[in-house]
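Researcher: We are triaging several targets before committing to wet-lab work. For this one, the compound of interest is zinc ion. I'm pasting the protein sequence and the ligand SMILES. What I need is the predicted three-dimensional arrangement of the protein with the ligand bound, expressed as structure tokens, so it can go straight into our comparison scripts without reformatting.
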Amino acid sequence: MSKQGRGPNSGRGARKQPQRMCIACRRAGGKRDLIRLVRVADGVKLDETGKQAGRGAYVHPQVDCWERALAGSLIQKALRTKISAENLMTLSASMSALLHMTNETA
Ligand SMILES: [Zn+2]
């Protein structure tokens, strides 16, 4: 496992840098390590570009984190929104596809 070099002291000024943190395991990660979920007009979706406007939450593209996020309604809490069952299914499907792509065969 490689740790990222940047410590908490590397920031300057009082302004807080928005830290990307997985809503499930609460570990911070780099932009490329986390998948962004974004709240849109009709619910929540995966933001694979990371550029979608709207309130966002991050989760590791790992089954572990994803399931924990779903089980604890962590996405709803993080995005302060409700997700319909239908939306959740779509979201899950997108995430599964993604997990499939990123997962190396163990
Ligand atoms: Zn995580």
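Researcher: Any quick observations?
Model: The chain has a mean pLDDT of 85.
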